[in-house]
Design goal:
With about 325 residues, the chain is α/β, with parallel strands linked by helices. Helices cover about 55% and strands about 10% of the residues. The chain has an eight-stranded mixed beta sheet with strand order 1-5-4-3-2-6-7-8, with helices on both faces.
Length: about 325
């Protein structure tokens, strides 16, 4: 998957040229593809966000997705996505565009989209899509997935079966060595992924898969902190080093979040500087105390998520109990 696949490309200014017929018989990548595939080599950080084309039934999903987009823009990352102005994906794109506009960078292109001819035909021109000037048109969904994985790291946000398909595909590709190791972030709004996380842990414990080192964040503020840590610690390195670095970030992240909550005016950079200085220093007492604080913060975060999962399970149990009672009443009425 590291070598460019054969896809055809056309450049559009949003969908202003959407009526143009895309020539899908070419086997040579065009100018947009060449630029897209070489972005990372030039030092530009690209983020692939997978998420729903629907908004879900709670406003918080779309609100947090918009804020996530703002965080992506604030860190000067470029967004790669599957081209949608609706739902979670549209909210992320609007957030990125909002931040870039506030920075006065309207003339630059913060978003690349990868889609298929069939999906492209579904979208009407609108305020979001008109600002997506680089659109890659792939032959198949498989090629679309491969192109999106050229990003530096991947964020999975709430979504439907398409998002689950993307997540499964990417996990398999990385586990089986078809994809170089890169950070995967779960944007766990309102505990959206708690069932999935438990399932992944379960299949690993039963010997059916390797553990996947997801960086789990519960909101856009935590995502911003994770971005800071990735920018500081994660660089191009071999697979083992990259995985170890991500695992350290996962373990240290709750502590940094906790410190930012305690001292909101302190920058993430200062918090990380202090942490690294103590851990790399010679003071055994300070190092031991900090190590305990990091472990405590990690455990507290896990406990917090566990309580949230238990609360959701309680509501699920109540709903199931109500349905069972209703079915029993219907059964009794039919027998009567």
């Amino acid at each position: 998957m590291s070598s460019p696949i054969e896809i055809s490309l056309e450049r559009g200014s949003g969908l202003l040229e959407r009526e143009q017929k895309y020539q899908l018989n070419s086997t040579k990548p065009g100018k947009v593809a060449s630029a897209f595939l070489s972005e990372n080599e030039q030092g530009t950080t690209r983020v692939f966000v997978a998420g729903g084309s629907r908004s879900g039934n709670r406003k918080v999903y779309e609100q947090e997705a918009f804020r996530l987009g703002q965080e992506i823009g604030r860190h000067n990352y470029r967004l790669d996505f599957g081209l949608s102005s609706r739902g979670i994906m549209g909210a992320v794109a609007r957030g990125v565009l909002d931040t870039w506009a506030r920075k006065g960078r309207r003339s630059q292109t913060p978003i690349h989209a990868v889609t298929t001819k069939e999906y492209l035909a579904l979208y009407q021109s609108d305020e979001v899509i008109d600002q997506v000037s680089d659109i890659i048109v792939a032959h198949t969904l498989e090629e679309r997935k491969q192109q999106l994985l050229n990003a530096d790291f991947v964020i999975f946000t709430p979504g439907g079966v398409g998002t689950l398909d993307e997540l499964s595909y990417d996990c398999v590709a990385m586990q089986d060595g078809f994809l170089d190791f890169k950070p995967f972030i779960l944007f766990n709004t309102e505990g959206f992924f708690h069932h999935l996380l438990e399932y992944l842990k379960d299949i690993h414990q039963k010997g059916f898969s390797d553990p996947m080192p997801f960086i789990v964040v519960d909101n856009s503020l935590e995502a911003g902190i994770a971005f800071e840590m990735l920018g500081r610690y994660y660089h191009k390195m071999d697979k083992m080093q990259a995985r170890e670095t991500v695992e350290h970030i996962i373990y240290d992240l709750p502590y940094v979040i906790e410190q930012k909550t305690i001292c909101p005016h302190k920058s993430i950079s200062d918090i990380l500087d202090e942490k690294d200085m103590i851990l790399q220093g010679t003071g055994k007492t300070r190092k031991q105390k900090l190590t305990q604080q990091i472990e405590s913060a990690y455990l507290n975060k896990e406990i917090e998520r566990m309580y949230n999962r238990l609360a959701k399970s309680g509501r699920d149990t109540a709903a199931v109990s109500y349905k069972l009672s209703s079915l029993k009443r219907r059964s009794v009425r039919r027998k009567g």
